[in-house]
Amino acid sequence: MAEPLLKVENLTMAFGGLVAVREFSFAVQPGTIHALIGPNGAGKSTTFNAISRLYQPAAGRILYAGEDITRLPSNAIAGRGIARSFQNLELFNELTVLENILIGAHVHCGGSLKDRLAAFPDSEMARIAEIMERTDLKAYRDTKARNLDFGHQKLLELARALAIRPRLLLLDEPAAGLRNREISALDELLTDLCRRDGLTILLVEHVMQLVMSISHTVTVLNFGTKIAEGVPAAVRADPAVIEAYLGKETALHG
Amino acid sequence: MRYIYLLVAVAALMVLPMLTTGYVVYLANLLLTFTVLCLGLHLVIGECGQFSLAHAAFYGIGIYVSGLLSTHVGWPFPLSMLAAGLVAAAVGVLIGLAALRMRDIYLALATFAFGEAMQWVFLNWRSVTGGPNGLRIAPANLFGWEIITDKQAYPVVLISAVVMIALTVLIARARIGRSFRAVRESEIAAQAMGIDVKQTKLAAFGLSAFFAGVAGSMFALYSTYIHPDSLGFSTTILVLTMVVVGGLGSIGGAVGGAIVFGLISELLRQAPQYQEIFYGLILVLFMMYAPKGLFAFLGDLWGRLRHG
User: Do B190 and A116 touch (CB under 8 A)?
Assistant: First the structure.
């Protein structure tokens, strides 16, 4: 097996007296889609925020491409090729779609003085046009983010993250609140990003239809600890997982 | 094509002093100075979303640095203007460092306190500023030319204002301008995009103060006398009103606000006791009924009238 792109070792996260994640370890293989699932409050988003450096772990290490990133500030990870989207949308609301995506390309516009001064840096525009095409945002180029419908706002989160040119894409509930048709489109897009562009994707998601369809590996968290891990079919059949999701009764009689 | 209109406008403004009286030229100088002040406040509040209520203090620093350099050292004006901008910017960055720990109303209060403290310094550092008696400043020299009258100062003031407008446009369009707006819209997302939020805020405070310092040296160019009375909170509020009324977040709004409101404030000079009440009232009314500013409001109104 190849060296994992992301490795989380014995991660423990505590808020005051509450331990949200306890000694959690998992690894994401390069070029795969890895899903992190679990009931509400299981510690998925907390883990996510620790990886994207918004939260500081109480203990444990986070390794990315062999580098220990546990103590990096959150603005230092984009330059290393880690991009994220936000569960509750953190768009630049008063700015246009194009400008949101341009800000995503921030770390690539700092080269020459010409690039720094350009409103539309030549080196990035072709790529940004391609991203808008693939995320169905081309027609909304000059629309303010806050005026987009919810589905396109979710897509803009993704587009902005793609402008970072990530190797590792962290997606926090990309399908939440989407309609069925939008979920299938997202399914195709994420699969394509992984297969064609070689991206590694770690996603937290509740929409099982998406998780089971696109993931290579699924890790299940419950009450801050890992209860199962494996290919989707195996995880779905795991009694511990069924119990965590549905409760003991149903597991026995179901 | 737009550049041609701009050139025509600047050329027309250039010949203004030949056509009118000294008072109109004085007023033009003042409005251009307010324009640069507004651009500075626009950068920190409009673009970066950080409240700063110390703009008059940076303006004052610019006036004194420039005036003192002209009087005591005899530097050519462009040099003393640059020095005025840089000293103000340095103080601005220091205030920015303090501001990193605060936001919203706390930031407003802290910068307000700094502004008041600076006015106290201007009033009491008698050996340098002349204290409440004010300070008479020698005419600036522009490589041998002495600038004494408003008409002589006008071309320099106009060119300075045009350069500062161009600089604002350049900054707003560039990568740093995008970082300012990203920080204004969402600090968390800005960080995730690799933007150093602290550095960005410091840059905004520094640039904003630089503009105020340059505006100060513009004022010093056509003035013969500096008095700290006009460097307090009322001036900060006046500039803030100009920026908000013009339209927060737009460069055109900041320039338009400076001109419209500069004229209003000049009219109100006859009744100084009502000035601040009037500014306060306008500020509140605009925040309530036309938060996007006068020009956006007029544009909407025009659109509604045309389309019923």
Answer: no
Whole-model pTM: value is 0.90
Count of structural domains, chain B: 1
Instruction: Check CB contact of B166 with chain A, cutoff 8 Å.
Output: no
The ipTM, to two decimals, is: 0.91
Mutate one of B191, B199, B202, B292 to test the A interface: name it (highest A CB count within 10 A). B191
Q: Which residue has the tokens 């505006």?
A: B215
For residue A192, is it within any domain?
A: no
pLDDT of residue A249: 53
User: Which of A52, A84, A92 shows the shortest C-beta gap to B186?
Assistant: A92
Calpha distance A38→B144 (Å, rounded): 78
Pick from B81, B66, B95, B92: nearest CA to B209: B92
The model's pLDDT over A30-54, given as tens digits with 9 standing for 90+, comes to 999 999 999 888 889 899 999 999 9
Give mean pLDDT, residues B282-286. Answer: 83
Q: Smallest Cβ distance to B185: which of A52, A92, A116?
A: A92
Assign residue A42 the CATH number of its domain. 3.40.50.300
Residue B59 near residue B215 (C-beta atoms within 8 A): yes
Could you identify the residue written with the tokens 């679990």? A38
pLDDT digits (tens, 9 = 90+) for A122-158: 889 999 999 999 999 999 999 999 999 999 999 999 9
Cα gap B264→B66, rounded to integer Å: 28
CATH number assigned to the domain comprising residue B270? 1.10.3470
Q: How far apart are CA A129 and CA B155, in angstroms?
A: 45
User: Strand ranges (DSSP E) for chain A?
Assistant: 6-15, 18-28, 33-37, 59-64, 67-68, 82-84, 168-172, 200-204, 217-222, 225-230
Q: How far, in Å, CA of A142 to CA of A63, rounded? A: 39
Report the alpha-carbon distance of residue B211 to residue B43 in Å, rounded: 9
Structural domain that includes position A42? 1-81+166-186+197-254
Query: From the CB of residue B128, how many other CB atoms can be counted at a distance below 10 Å?
Result: 12
Instruction: Say which of A73, A90, A110 has its CB closest to residue B189.
Output: A90
Please give the tally of structural domains in chain A. Answer: 2
Instruction: Determine the residue of chain B that is closest to A83 in CA distance.
Output: B192
Residue with tokens 């995506």: A101
Q: Please give, rounded to a whole number of angstroms, the shortest distance from the CA of B53 to a CA of chain A.
A: 24
